[in-house]
Each structure stands twice: as C-alpha cells, then as structure tokens.
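Ticket opened by: R.M.
Priority: normal
Category: complex prediction / small molecule

The reporter submitted a protein together with 4'-deoxy-4'-aminopyridoxal-5'-phosphate and asked that the result be attached to this ticket for the collaborator who will pick it up next week. Submitted input follows.
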Amino acid sequence: MSRTAYVNGRYVPHHSAAVHIEDRGYQFSDGIYEVCEVLGGKLVDEARHMARLSRSLSELQIRMPMKLSALRRVLHETVRRNRVADGLVYVQITRGVAPRDHAFPSPDTPPSVVVTAKRVPRIKGEHTAEEGVRVITLPDNRWDRVDIKTVSLLPNILAKQKAKEAGAYEAWFVDGDGCVTEGSSTNAWIVSQDGTLVTRPAEHGILRGITRMVVMDIAANEGMKVEERHFSVDEAKMAREAFITAASTLVMPVVEIDGKVIGNGQPGSITLSLREKFHENAEIAVA
Ligand code: PMP
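Result attached by the on-call engineer:
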C-alpha cells in the first residue's frame, strides 16, 4: 500500500513529499516534533503530546500553525489514510521557509507542518522486551534546553549510532557528575534494591517524557515508591532493575549497562509489570 504524508495543507504521496530547501528545519534544525504511539488506530496520550508540542513551540517562539483541534484532525487523518492500526504518528513544525538568515524571519512567515504515520508491528517490541536491551553510557554533550523537543538531534543520533556499533540498543547520556541524564531517545530509570523507582527530575536536563509521566501514574495507582533524583552510572550498575521509556519503546527492560549485567540478566519483574499495565493507564483517544 502506498503511504501518504501531510505537507503544509496537502496530503501527498510519501515518496515524493518534500519541503523547500530554505525551510528553516532543513537549514538550522529550527523546529520541533512529537511522536505519538498508535494503538488499534487510536492515538495514545494525544492530549499530553499536544500539550508538550504547544510548549515546545512557545519556548522557541514559533507560532501554532493552526488551531490545536485542526492539527489533531490532521494527525488522525494521516493515521487513517495510511491505515495504521499499530505504529507511530510523527508531526514536525518548523519556523517555515525564508531566505537563509540566522535571525527569525518576518513573523508572518507561515510555519511548516509535516505529518507522517507508519506501521510498527506490536510483536516486534514484545520480542525485544522479552530479552531486554543493552545500553552504553556516553558524556552528555547536548545544549541545556533538551526539555524542548527540537529536531536538533545531532548529539542524539551520534550517540545512538555509537550504541548500535557497540551492539547496544540505547546510549545513556552522563552529566559532569557521573549521573545519568536520559537516553538518546528515551528516559532512563532504575529500580533500587528496595523496589523504589528512580529517575532524574524533569528539569531542563531531560525531556519530560510522556511515557515517563504515565509510569509515574502507574506507580501512584499501585502504591509504588518513586524518587525523582539524580543517580550515577555506578548506582545504575548495582540496581535491581533498569529500564527505558518512550512512546516508541514503551517500558523496555535494560539488562546490561556498559557490559555490566543488571540483576540476573533477565528483564526485571517490576519493569515487566509496568510494561503490562502501561496501556491501562495511558489515555487512548478515539480516532
Ligand atoms: N528523551 C528523549 C531525548 C527522547 O527523544 C524521547 C522520545 N521522544 C524521550 C525521552 C521519551 O519521551 P516520550 O515518552 O514522550 O516518547
């Protein structure tokens, strides 16, 4: 089946979908994005993703290209046109097309909007979760506003590539104090020996993951203890369990950090129960 993309007001064949060479996203990474899980044709945690999208835009002083309700309709329509039952929907908004100049273009420049949707078989993630994944650690060399979900992802892609080359699934960024910030495209968690969930506070040093928030909700519902605090790579290596969260991976067990086996090398039971309860706790909007 041929895929369809939404580009600046039109639904076009995916293979020929294009933006102008002077789009500020292409020239400067001057834009933001969101990735939302699609489950049974419905969007998971759409309201929270849209709230974060609005915040990212306002932090960069990019105006909303259309009403939020209209943008939501485009997301749903792109999912529908691509007949995505399970997968991901991607939306990117940039500061628009203007002659190349670092400073912002005229405020009447329309932002560019691209939406795509793709199928991802659920079984793929389930197989990965049965085994658990390996992570490596790398110095965090990103700017200090990674709380904004910008398309400016160069350090993240270099880190992910290093992970791939090392036979790992993810790279965890480490700050100057030896503490884990987050993964290149995921939030990082450990479970301490007493069963407490530990993750870094969502200040400017990490992205406030939507999946992370849902895990917080599950923990609250289940009476589990959560500590939002910094944790070191050494502490992570000695943890009972470790896992990562993102809309694309959900709750994914980590079984090895820099070659050090976590627990007994199998996905942890707390991690797996969080994964199992995830969709009961996420908000699943009708398409
Ligand atoms: N941190 C980074 C750097 C990410 O790119 C992502 C995925 N977008 C996350 C965390 C997880 O966020 P979410 O749970 O909203 O997908």
